[in-house]
Amino acid sequence: MSITDWFKAREERRYTKPGTAPHEVSRALDDIWIKCDECKRDVSEAELVENLRVCKYCGHHYQLTAPERIMLLSDEDSFTEIDADLQSGDPLGFVAAKTYVESLDAAREKSELPEAIITGLAAVGRHPVVLGAMDFRFIGASMGSVVGEKVTRAFELATEKRLPVVLVCASGGARMQEGMLSLMQMAKTAAAVRRHDEAGLAYVAVLTNPTYGGVTASFATLGDVLIAEPGAMIGFAGPVVIEHTIRQKLPKGFQTAESLLQHGLLDEVVQRRHLPERLGRYLDYLASPADRAAEGGAA
């Protein structure tokens, strides 16, 4: 199934009842309109589906889910999920406006995922890789113990199998409902990235909107290559928090991917439709002679 066909199937499930005729599905998508967050022009849901959820007028990139990311980036029928059974518990018995258990249940129902990240073995541009994607629908893709564990296991598997890692990051930061246990994931994931790097293996990070907090301060910015989508907001603390702290107005474009590219944090800002090709090219560059020989033998 092509990525366009997959998007269409997703929207059919989202907006129509089972058994709806194809012409009725098309009309249903055409009848759903949103106002673009950036240019304020009206865009139909059908147009967004066709354009990988990018505004055709101004190029504003809307969020994608983790399954959409994996479908977009991986070669057809190449993805095999790992650690799919890991789910968060409630180690602190956390209660605020609602319990942590209630928040987890709501996130699972909303996202249809067990946690905020999907990881697995895949091929990207014909290169075998360990591929992961975070999903902002799941409590803002915050990093708790399970997200940290899945990222760590992904790097450990990649190190063991001598594979590069491609990780699509999106997060609001550490998961406050797990307190210090969440903050400890920063060190754990960074250590796994370090071991993978010491083995001479490549890591490409794709930073999407938004990527903040402990995720930015750990594995998201430790890649050999850092790519971001246009307009992605990337940082540690958010602009409002920073302005209140320093009591100064921040410059226009602060923490956008374009600003971070200009100031040297990123290697490239890449349009969504070009990501699969560009990742394949980087993996070509980063593969060692031994790895290239191994891939050739596998082919």
What does this structure look like?
This protein is an alpha/beta fold and 299 residues long. It has twelve helices and nine strands. The chain is globular, with a radius of gyration of 20 Å. The model is unreliable at 15-20 (pLDDT under 50).
Name the shape in a single word: globular
Number of helices: 12
Strand content: 15-25%
Identify the CATH architecture of the largest domain: Alpha-Beta Complex
What fold name stands as the CATH topology of the largest domain? 2-enoyl-CoA Hydratase, Chain A, domain 1
Termini separation = 22 Å
The largest pleated sheet is described as:
7 strands, mixed
Return the CATH class of the largest domain. Alpha Beta
Number of domains: 2
